[in-house]
Q: What sequence folds into this?
């Protein structure tokens, strides 16, 4: 079996190549942490079984982040494996920096030059460059399997050479110069270096180069505490060597990688945030209203006409109308699960826009825009990727936080991610908000998404100033060129998410709906309520907890019970409300009509009540899947603390929203607005006076006079 490591800079098409070679479906993205740990798969070529390992993207073998350390440690541990080093043809000059590091280590290398940008950037003499470096170089298109034949042929030939005793021994002029010029500094470490490298000359050279770079990881491994002169610039020697190669073998147009005229607009300090918000507003409008609503209505009609109604008619004819099995299918499956399934087109649209944000290269620009803001509250730009992924699924988003080298930043990011409005929450917004606000619901939805972000930033600031102060972190931000979406990749991504949604509905949500139906149709003594009077188990539990939520404007046992069911999956809140109200159709309009009727088991008294409920759903406990991932990533202690804090924040925020909205309902907007502004000014005045009084107690000359100066 041939063992291969796949190595490259971020955004060079590494994971795309991995998927093409192995027919896998690993996620491809333009952010840190997409490949956080090594992933491996097998494939066959000409009867040879090949095990290929996809390592996290890295810029050099000097690790500056968690994912780079994962990759560099794995390469060092398995240095004799064949390495496919993928480079971007439009940025070959910078990508070769990593290639030289791999050559210094003495790894057997195949250089795969990926033509990502279809524009002709440069003409490269691959044969000449290959002879000069002493490695095989091939052109590829990572997304096109037919273009990978030459790569596989090179792989087979290199493996045959290794089996016949070939050991790489690259001739790099700058290495000889560096070692000769600094021999006196390195001589005293020869014994320690030899103990780790033994008779491996390449490894011996590699350790010496890393010492000259003052690499902390290698120094720790060799138990060396000496500091090396920072003026010894190994990086400059590498880049000079690369520049000379490019002058000989490449004709390159003057172009800065990733730079675009669009950045003058999209990264403008005044326009960047409004443009991003406009993108979100457009995406939400198309998802929740225009296109999404049309497709959802169409799917609802098809389900009703061709699945729900025929199945229900068959069961009634077979078992009778009042049979418990008929009730289970009618309420729990058709009414409950069917109401969630109708959101499938909107889920697909939401992930389509997230894919557009990512594939176009705009996602990295968004991280850049928010880097300064998040830096002030103790987060880095890496947190942007995790939080934005939270709009899709909090569970998978939390996993990307593991690449952060600072423990406190990782904990904070993990705790803040559930504040984002994941795709499981928007059925709640669409159904409940749509019933009361109609077309204006888009502003409510935008407000909820932004509220989650504001709460997350506020909590991060509090954590930063109290118990989770972050250390300074390295964050290398790369701007990929703007690109059109890949239809093949987008379709693959949408299919994966659609399949996941259908699987979730058919398993977890179906199981939870059945449990909710059982609890709401049987008494504590396990008697079926049916047409007889009786109090269900769920109603009993809901009534016990309902007084807690009176200050928030909703105390219906059904709404409280739906919140409890939502701990398993947030979508269950909508299906639970549909079951409690006896909605038999899998129609969004039917559920919306039911919550407007005071005769229903679950209803809202007004817009203030529904706003409060939506805010509480946004911020209260994360689902069980997310909680379990949080426990694994940040530990039980911080997960429990985070859940408790989120409940308190959800309660207080919902209380404030309800009070404010209720005040407007009673007194009108302007009276309420003026009253709140007045209260706010009074509080500011009190804080201002307090600070003045406090400052007067401190000697104004305390910085100039002696240490014995006392307060007067």
A:
């Amino acid at each position: 079996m041939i063992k291969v490591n796949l190595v490259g800079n971020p955004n060079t098409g590494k994971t795309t190549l991995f998927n093409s070679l192995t027919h896998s479906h690993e996620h491809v993205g333009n952010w840190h942490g997409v490949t956080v740990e090594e992933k491996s798969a097998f494939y066959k070529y000409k009867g040879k079984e090949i095990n290929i390992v996809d390592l996290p993207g890295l810029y050099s073998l000097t690790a500056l982040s968690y994912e780079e350390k994962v990759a560099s440690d794995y390469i060092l541990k398995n240095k004799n494996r064949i390495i496919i080093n993928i480079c971007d043809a439009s940025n070959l000059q910078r990508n070769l920096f990593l290639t030289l590091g791999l050559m210094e280590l003495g790894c057997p290398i195949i250089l795969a030059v990926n033509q990502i940008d279809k524009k002709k950037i440069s003409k490269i003499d691959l044969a000449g460059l290959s002879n000069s470096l002493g490695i095989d170089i091939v052109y590829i298109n990572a997304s096109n399997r037919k273009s990978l034949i030459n790569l596989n042929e090179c792989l087979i030939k290199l493996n045959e050479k290794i089996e016949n005793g070939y050991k790489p021994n690259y001739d790099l002029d700058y290495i000889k110069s560096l070692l000769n010029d600094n021999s006196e500094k390195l001589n005293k470490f020869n014994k320690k270096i030899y103990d780790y490298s033994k008779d491996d000359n390449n490894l011996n050279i590699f350790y010496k180069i890393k010492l000259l770079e003052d690499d902390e990881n290698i120094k720790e491994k060799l138990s060396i505490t000496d500091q090396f002169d920072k003026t010894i610039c190994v990086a400059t020697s590498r880049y000079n060597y690369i520049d000379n190669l490019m002058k000989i073998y490449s004709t390159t147009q003057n172009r800065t990688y990733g730079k675009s005229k669009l950045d003058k607009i999209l990264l403008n300090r005044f326009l960047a945030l409004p443009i991003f918000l406009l993108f979100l507003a457009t995406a939400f409008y198309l998802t929740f209203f225009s296109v999404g609503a049309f497709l959802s209505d169409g799917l609802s009609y098809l389900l009703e006409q061709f699945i729900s109604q025929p199945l229900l008619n068959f069961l009634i004819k077979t078992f009778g109308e009042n049979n418990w099995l008929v009730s289970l299918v009618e309420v729990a499956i058709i009414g409950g699960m069917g109401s969630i399934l109708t959101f499938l087109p909107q889920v697909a649209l939401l992930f389509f826009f997230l894919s557009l944000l990512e594939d176009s290269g705009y996602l990295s620009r968004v991280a850049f825009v928010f880097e300064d803001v998040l830096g002030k509250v103790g987060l880095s730009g890496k947190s942007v990727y995790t939080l934005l992924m939270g709009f899709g699924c909090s569970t998978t988003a939390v996993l990307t936080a593991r690449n952060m080298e600072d423990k406190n930043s990782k904990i904070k990011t993990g705790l803040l991610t559930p504040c984002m409005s994941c795709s499981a929450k928007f059925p709640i917004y669409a159904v409940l908000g749509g019933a009361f606000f109609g077309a204006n619901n888009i502003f409510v939805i935008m407000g909820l998404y932004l509220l989650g972000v504001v709460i997350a930033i506020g909590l991060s600031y509090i954590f930063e100033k109290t118990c989770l102060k972050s250390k300074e972190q390295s964050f290398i931000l790369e701007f990929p060129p703007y690109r059109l979406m890949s239809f093949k990749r987008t379709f693959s991504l949408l299919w994966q998410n659609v399949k996941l949604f259908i699987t979730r509905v058919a398993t977890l949500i179906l199981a939870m709906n059945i449990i909710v139906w059982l609890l709401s149709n049987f008494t504590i003594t396990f008697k079926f309520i049916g047409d007889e009077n009786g109090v269900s188990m769920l109603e009993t539990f809901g009534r016990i907890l309902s007084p807690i939520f009176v200050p928030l404007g909703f105390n219906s046992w059904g709404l409280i019970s739906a919140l409890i069911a939502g701990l398993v999956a947030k979508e269950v809140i909508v299906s639970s409300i549909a079951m409690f109200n006896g909605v038999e159709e899998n129609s969004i309009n039917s559920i919306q009509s039911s919550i407007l009727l005071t005769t229903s088991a679950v209803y809202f008294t007004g817009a203030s009540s529904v706003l409060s409920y939506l805010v509480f759903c946004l911020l209260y406990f994360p689902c069980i899947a997310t909680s379990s991932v949080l426990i694994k990533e940040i530990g039980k202690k911080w997960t429990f603390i985070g859940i408790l804090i989120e409940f308190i924040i959800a309660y207080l925020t919902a209380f404030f929203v309800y009070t404010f909205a209720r005040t407007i309902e009673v007194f009108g907007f302007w009276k309420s607005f003026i009253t709140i502004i007045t209260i706010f000014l009074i509080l500011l005045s009190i804080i201002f006076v307090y600070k003045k009084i406090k400052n007067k107690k401190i000697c104004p000359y305390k910085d100039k006079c002696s240490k014995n100066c006392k307060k007067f």
Remarks:
- The chain has a mean pLDDT of 83.
- The beta strands are 2-8, 39-45, 48-54, 82-88, 109-114, 122-124, 136-140, 250-252.
- The chain has three domains: 2-163, 272-669, 674-712.
